[in-house]
Amino acid sequence: MAGAVACVRRFGNFSCLCGFSRLSSLTNLTRNYSRTLNTPKPSNLKIICCRKPYQIAHYYVKSKPKDPHALSWKAVFALCSGISCGIGFSIAYLGQVRDEENDIYKDENIVLAHLYRARDWLHEFKESFAEPSSDLLLPDPLPEPYIQPKYTLVLELTDVLVHPEYTTTSGWRFRKRPGVSQFLKALTLPMFEIVIYTHENGFSSAPVVDGVDPEGFIMYRLFRDATKYTNGTHVKDLSRLNRDITKVVLVDCDSRTSQLQPRNSLVLKKWNGDPKDTDLFELIPFFHMIATSNVDDVRPILDFYRNEEDPVAAWRRNQDLLRKQQEELLLQQQQQKQQPSGGGFFSRGLFGPRR
């Protein structure tokens, strides 16, 4: 021990000569030195002593990174606890009695009653999004002396009037179907009340409708919020249009959207953007025939084309057949006019000319 103290004294004299300051007293150094003899130092501890005062730095060599999954169980436990507390609070809040007189679960166990009320509330909340935004989607028909068309023509926007296309340079663009302007202009007032009823949202579809109909032939616009969401399909409930259902025609390219009133639908083939398409041009005389014939119910006419894969092609074939029949009938009438009366010739030949 005496040798150790002597070494410390020599180190103190040496430090004074080298410029070290504020060294501990000899007693403290002796105590610390004797403590360090009995206490093992960490292998990764290094000491740097500089000539300038107050610059004795201690640092540890960087240890190996810890496993990031070592404490993941704590995060899982905290997450599960938070979810459990949230579910419990939600059930307690949503399961409160809102109408004591009409509470159908008042005789149930208090826990089960809260669960049932919370379930009913969630079901009603879901139905509020699945149902149309209003019971009556269109205003009342126009009173006299205003012109209210007898028939209502309901049109889908996507793949019937326009076709969406996407490119990396220009993004989404909508190609206008050939004949859209002529179709709307030919069938607007006073023949039909034209309504857009699409499964697209109004935020993105309203500007497209403005581009398709700059002259304002379309009277009303209904978007996704006016549909009934059923089994992944936005169904169009024509009974909510506030119009006589016997005089409503829906033109769409998806038969599932008209599953509530299939007899009122004319399901076309999807338009894929072909610039040579003529379906809308050929549908003008079809709807013109319905409007001018003044039928009381459009559904028997639509039933004739409801099972056709391509109603426009079927209409075209029927028109060609009708045209041929009319031509044959006209030819027969002309031939009958040109032929002389057979009975008169026979009587004159048999009995001779009269005197």
TrEMBL record:
Entry GO CC: TIM23 mitochondrial import inner membrane translocase complex
Chief site of localization: mitochondrion
Compositional bias (Low complexity): 331-340
Record key words, sorted: Membrane, Mitochondrion, Mitochondrion inner membrane, Protein transport, Transit peptide, Translocation, Transmembrane, Transmembrane helix, Transport
Functional summary from the UniProt entry: Essential component of the TIM23 complex, a complex that mediates the translocation of transit peptide-containing proteins across the mitochondrial inner membrane.
Family from the record: Belongs to the TIM50 family.
Protein name: Mitochondrial import inner membrane translocase subunit TIM50
Organism for this UniProt entry: Clytia hemisphaerica
